[in-house]
């Protein structure tokens, strides 16, 4: 796809990927509603295939390739959930996945890629190392590169989570998602724009990786002033495609501290009885931080994933 996904594109995407993904549940909690002062509906993408929403975008991007492109194999670079998504999608169409991962990627995410039959090629934990390693694979294998977020087919796939949330929860005043590279946030904003145009789309971002809010304000891709956060899934900068959509359709980005992320993550574990990773907790942390702003409203939050190292819990 070479254009911003239309509503028809997203609907067709949902039909294309539906047999390969889970329609994840939406959960709520009276205790959380009382504490937050609003009605919160959590879309549980931690219960998605591979334990994260990334299965949607990765699957759509691979299914959208020609048979010839699929047969030559798929490559990407990712520290975790997108890596597993591409491995899953490659397995679904019977081809090879060459996954470039930084050597400090979480073991649980490396193991997930191996389990799905993906071939891991490790590199230094820099964007330059990721990109040069991927290019080498493209040159040697002829594999097709699927960008983790700056790809309209990926964005259309991620939008299907919000489509389901809106169908399951009904009328919402606000839809919230975390922002890293912006694939999910872009898709969420498009889905809301098409289906629920009066709803506000608001993102949560860690203070320790606050590049998106700077880009959102300046209109050009910015880097974070410093990088230090437990939310390892949100360490990426926006792309040109995601930035354009986010600046057009997203209302605001709220930054949160490490302590706020951990407290929100713990609250979800305790009250919803589900496992989520730190990145998932970021938009909920943003809601709790500015709860007066959301008083009495109906809020949808996408819980993005549950791939957490249980040996390194922050609480």
Automatic annotation (TrEMBL):
Gene Ontology BP, a term: D-serine biosynthetic process
Swiss-Prot/TrEMBL cofactor(s): pyridoxal 5'-phosphate
Keywords associated with the record: Lyase, Pyridoxal phosphate
One MF term in the entry's GO annotations: magnesium ion binding
Domain of life: Bacteria
Source organism: Emticicia agri
Protein name in UniProt: Pyridoxal-phosphate dependent enzyme
Domain Tryptophan synthase beta chain-like PALP: 18-305
Family: Belongs to the serine/threonine dehydratase family.
Listed Gene3D superfamilies: 3.40.50.1100
